[in-house]
Amino acid sequence: MKDKEIIEVRSEDETRILAEKLASEVAGGTVIALEGELGAGKTTFTKYFAHALGIDEMIQSPTFTVVRSYDEGKFSLHHFDVYRVHDEEELFEIGFFEYIESSDGVCLIEWANLVKNLLPTDAWSIHIGYGERENERIFEILR
Q1: 99 vs 17, 80, 89, 118, 122, CA distance in Å?
Q2: Which secondary structure element, helix H or strand E, spans residue 9, and what is its range?
Q3: H helix count then E strand count, the chain
Q4: SS3 assignment, position 108
Q5: What pLDDT sits at residue 125?
Q6: 23 Cβ contact list (under 8 Å, min separation 6)
Q7: pTM
Q8: Confidence band (pLDDT; 50, 70, 90) for 2?
Q9: Residue 137: how many CB atoms within 10 A of its CB?
């Protein structure tokens, strides 16, 4: 059974601190399923997570390319946005399954709820929800 943590952050700086903490705990081959409503902060979290891995390149959501890879950090980071993916064939064509089965890098998948049945059972799950205040976010983490 996976451990569940619920963490409330009240600012973008606290999101950065959480992303740094989680990045320090990953190993090669980790798959992270990132979920949350539009604008919840998935890409912001990913930006800080990547920076904590030692990736200095500007992180942008791969909404139209589906995947962007960054190879300069502690681990390669394969950042997916599967929001616009229509079927498994499209994932097969971009090498999705090779990425998530590799032990070399870390895969971080935005909108992972759309492909959850295709992810490894040991994938981490991070759901970002809105809090009561404007900048507040609730992170539900299973790992």
Answers
A1: 27, 10, 15, 12, 15
A2: strand 4-9
A3: 4, 7
A4: strand
A5: 98
A6: 49, 52, 53
A7: 0.93
A8: confident
A9: 23
